[in-house]
Amino acid sequence: MTSQPQAQPQPYATPDPALGRAVKAADRAHVFHSWSAQAAIDPLAVAGAEGSYFWDYEGKRYLDFTSGLVFTNIGYQHPKVVAAIQEQAAKMTTFAPAFAVEARSEAARLIAERTPGDLDKIFFTNAGADAVEHAIRMARLHTGRPKVLSAYRSYHGGTQQAVNLTGDPRRWPSDSGTAGVVHFWAPFLYRSRFYARTEEEECARALEHLETTITFEGPGTIAAVILETIPGTAGIMVPPPGYLAGVREICDRHGIVFVLDEVMAGFGRTGEWFAADLFGVVPDLMTFAKGVNSGYVPLGGVAISPEIADTFATRPYPGGLTYSGHPLACAAAVATINVMREEGIVENAKRLGETVLGPALAELAERHPSVGEVRGTGMFWALDLIRDTETHEPLVPYNASGSSNAPMLAFTAAAKKHGLWPFVNMNRTHIVPPLNITEEDLKEGLSALDTALNTTDAHMAG
């Protein structure tokens, strides 16, 4: 799978370790990093990035199998998007959100053209977390109900409401138990909570569980059910056929707003513009961010159904942001969407997922006993790493830290040694490269991944 080494990208082809040390020193002195014990981290000083690669001040280059935090869907420094930001900055750098601005209007139009069904009104936010905050606010105001149901094994953002909706351990330090959130189990056959043996059983039992939860919570108290269409950070668990349609039916029957979180899965990541397109389901509200402009300038938003938009036709919506629809961010979104259309980037993600990435990961699973399951679609995949093939015991415990996380730390180090920057979460590695990665670069990354997985095989039980 290994391709020939490529020339170091410009403009940082010449190593500059002294500058790297200065950048690192300033970071350690003044930058407070997210989700981290500050004294325990050692951030890499990054000198530059281009396409699917970034490199440090020592001259070492890494193939980015993380797309940043799964947002550089068109790779780093796409010249057309960089030019659009420069052009917008020269024309109108910023403007208040209460006005009609060309970049904002065009971004909303292009997004609405691609959202499923009739989600044609776009409320702009600065990122995915505040998009979720506003979607939930809209649902509660629209229904007059207080509660929201969300799944375990989910992530919806780091702001107060969004992190309470989240179903992974990042919620725990901020969970006061007063956010009006009720969690439930969504389907995941490989680690079924319903003792299911088939996808059909898992789907039926998960829907029954959701229906029962709604019944015992009181349907008249529930404003919304929110789901990641395909959960991202929690493990890229593609829902079984019929599940999302079943949730849609349950919500309709009880007058509950159905919210899909497409912050990570949207804008081509799954080989479709939105993951909802894979399942033929239209939610009432849909959140987005990340890939809408590849993270070049922070932007998120909520796509809104006509029924919910009509709630605020004559009644003011009590929410907004100073930078809602920021012209630089919206210009980047316009350029990104146009680039994706012109260059067939969504189609490339679908093609490579079907013909290269999916088959190659299945082949890796055949060779490496520590790969328990391969899950995904498009450029959105996860390897579930295990210690025991019979019990599916995870390679490391849930929310492992310190020495208990040593196998995943060893895997990460091995990947980086071979020039691959991996996405690692708990007992999984996710394969989420830019959607326009070349087939040659993808195979190069898979070769490095193959080598790194030898470290996880070494930790198999027995």
What does this structure look like?
The protein is α/β, with parallel strands linked by helices. 38% of the residues lie in helices and 15% in strands. It is built from 14 helices and 15 strands. The chain has helices at 17-30, 67-70, 79-91, 102-114, 128-143, 160-165, 199-217, 243-254, 276-279, 306-311, 327-342, 345-367, 406-417, 439-457; strands spanning 46-50, 53-56, 61-64, 121-125, 147-151, 181-184, 222-228, 257-261, 285-288, 300-304, 371-377, 380-385, 420-421, 423-425, 428-431. The strands form three sheets. Strands 4-10-9-8-7-5-6 form a seven-stranded mixed sheet, with helices on both faces. Strand 8, helix 9 (276-279) and strand 9 form a beta-alpha-beta unit. Helix 3 (79-91) runs antiparallel to helix 11, helix 7 packs parallel to helix 8 (243-254) and helix 13 (406-417) runs antiparallel to helix 14. It is globular. The model is unreliable at 1-12 (pLDDT under 50).
Notable traits:
462 residues, four-stranded mixed β-sheet, 14 helices, alpha/beta
Short structural description:
The chain is 38% helix and 15% strand.
What proportion of the residues form beta strands (DSSP E)? 15-25%
Integer-rounded radius of gyration: 22 Å
Q: What profile does the largest beta sheet have? A: 7 strands, mixed
**Low-pLDDT windows of residues:** 1-12
The amount of helix comes to 25-40%
Widest sheet: strand order?
4-10-9-8-7-5-6
What structural category do the secondary elements indicate? alpha/beta
Shape: globular
Q: Spell out the helices and strands N to C.
A: HEEEHHHEHEHEHEHEHEEHHHEEHEEEH
Number of strands: 15
What is the residue-mean pLDDT, rounded to a whole number? 94
Number of helices: 14
C-alpha termini separation: 30 Å
